[in-house]
Amino acid sequence: MIPAILKSNLKGLSGEIAVPGDKSISHRSVMFGSIAQGKTAVTNFLPGEDCLSTIACFRKLGVSIEQEGNRVTVAGKGLEGLQEPADILDVGNSGTTIRLLMGILAGRPFHSVLIGDESIAKRPMTRVTAPLSLFGAQINGRNNGEFAPLSVQGRQLAGVTYELPVASAQVKSALLFAGMQAIGETVIIEPMKTRDHTERMIKQFGGEVETDGHTIRIKGGQTLTGAEIHVPGDISSAAFFLAAGAIVPNSEIKLKNVGLNPTRTGIIEVMHQMGAHISIEPYENGSAEPAGDITIRTSDLKGTVIEGELIPRLIDEIPIIALLATQAEGETVIKDAEELKVKETNRIDTVVDELSKLGADIIATEDGMVIRGKSHLSGGTVSSHGDHRIGMMLAVAAAISQGDVQLHQKEAISVSYPSFFEHFDSLIS
Ligand code: S3P
C-alpha cells in the first residue's frame, strides 16, 4: 500500500471542534441497552469501527439495534432475551468488546465463539478468563484460554471476591457483568482506580453497585431498565488536539463537550504540570458523566515524571504525551506503564520506534520510556502499525515536522476517530 502524505510544518491551528463520542462509554451504552428491559436511546454515540463491532455482536445475539450516524436505539429484552448466536462473534480490533462480552456471555445458557483481528489474537485474555473461571465460567481458548479465538459455554455463575492483579477497567467491567448474573455478591478489589464508566452506567440503568475506595461490590440477580444515554466527547480523542494546540506555533483550539470523568483526566493534569495553557469550562448539568469545554493555546513546555496512580488515568494518552515530551525542555520519564505492551500494539515499542524515525530523542525502558527535549522533528516514513492512537499521534508529529511525513496504515484511525483528518484540516489557518 502507498503511504499517505501528512500535512507538515504547520504555521498555526485555530478554531473549535466537537470531538466524537467517548469510545468506552459508547461500547457500554450498547451492552447495557442490550441486557436491559425496554428501549435505550443513545445520542453522540461514536460510530467508529470498534463500537460498530459491538453493535454487530449484539445483533448476532438477537438484539434489535438501529444505528444512524451517532444515534443508536436498542430494543433490550433483558439478559434472558439474549439468544445463542448462529455465527461467530467478530470483535474486529476491539479489546473492550471481547473482554466485556466474555463477562456477559459467561452467565448466559448457550455457546458462543469470539474472534478478532490479528492484534486481538495476540492480546492477553487470561486476565479475564482466569477470574471468570472462579465464578464457574467455562471458557476455552488457544494456549489454555490465553488467546482468541475463545469459546464460551455459559452457565449459572456464583459470586466471588477477587483482587485484580492489574489495574484494568476492561477486566473489572467483565467481572461486574458476571457478578450481575451470579448467585450472591461479587467483590472486586482494584490495585489502582481505573475508569468507572461501567459503575456509573449500572446506576443509570437502575442497577446497584457500591464503590468504597478501591473496592467495588455488586449483587447478582439485578434487572436493568433501558435508559437515555448522552455520550460526552472522548477525552482520549481530544488529547490529540490538546497536544497539537500546545505544540504547533500560533495556535488556539477550543474542544467542545469533552468528557471530564476524573478517572480519565490524567492528561490534563500532566499538561498543566508541563506548563501548558489549558483552561476548562465544566458544564453544570449534573449528568452521570461530567463534561465541559477545553481551550488550549501554544505553550512552552517542560519535562515531567509520570508514574503510579496517574498511569491508569491516562493510559491511552501515553503515545501523544510522548510526542509532547519531545517538545518540552528537559527530560520526561514515563514509568509503571508495562500495560502499554499489551495494547493494540506494544505501545512502548511502536511509540519509540516511530518517533525515533522522525528524529526524537526517546528510549524505551522496561516499564515506559525516557524522552529528552526539545528536539526538531524532521520528515520520514512512519507507520501506525494498525494502531489508531499511534496513527493520530504521528499525524500531530507531522504537523511540527520540518520535512514530509509519510504514514503507512493510516486507515487504522477509523477505529476510534473516523473524522480525525476532517477535524484536523478544519483547524489549519
Ligand atoms: C478501556 C480500558 C483500558 C483502555 C481501553 C478502553 C475500557 O484498557 O486502554 O482503550 O473501555 O474499559 P484496560 O482496561 O485493559 O487498561
From TrEMBL:
Q: Which reaction does it catalyse?
A: 3-phosphoshikimate + phosphoenolpyruvate = 5-O-(1-carboxyvinyl)-3-phosphoshikimate + phosphate
- Could you tell me the keywords of this UniProt record? Amino-acid biosynthesis, Aromatic amino acid biosynthesis, Cytoplasm, Transferase
UniProt superkingdom: Bacteria
Organism expressing this protein natively = Sporosarcina globispora (Bacillus globisporus)
The kind of enzyme this is, by top-level EC class, is transferase
Q: Name one GO cellular component term.
A: cytoplasm
Keyword Glycosyltransferase applies: no
Q: Which is a GO BP term held by this UniProt record?
A: aromatic amino acid family biosynthetic process
Binding positions for 3-phosphoshikimate? 23-24, 28, 168, 170, 316, 343
Q: Which GO terms describe its molecular function?
A: 3-phosphoshikimate 1-carboxyvinyltransferase activity
One family name in Pfam for this protein: EPSP_synthase
Per the similarity annotation, which family is this?
Answer: Belongs to the EPSP synthase family.
Q: Which residues form the Enolpyruvate transferase domain?
A: 11-423
Q: In which pathway does it act?
A: Metabolic intermediate biosynthesis; chorismate biosynthesis; chorismate from D-erythrose 4-phosphate and phosphoenolpyruvate: step 6/7
Give the multimer and partner information.
Answer: Monomer.
The protein, known as: 3-phosphoshikimate 1-carboxyvinyltransferase
Sequence positions that bind phosphoenolpyruvate: 23, 95, 123, 170, 347, 389
- Compartment annotation: Cytoplasm
| Enzyme Commission identifier(s) | 2.5.1.19
Q: What does this protein do?
A: Catalyzes the transfer of the enolpyruvyl moiety of phosphoenolpyruvate (PEP) to the 5-hydroxyl of shikimate-3-phosphate (S3P) to produce enolpyruvyl shikimate-3-phosphate and inorganic phosphate.
Keyword Cell division on entry: no
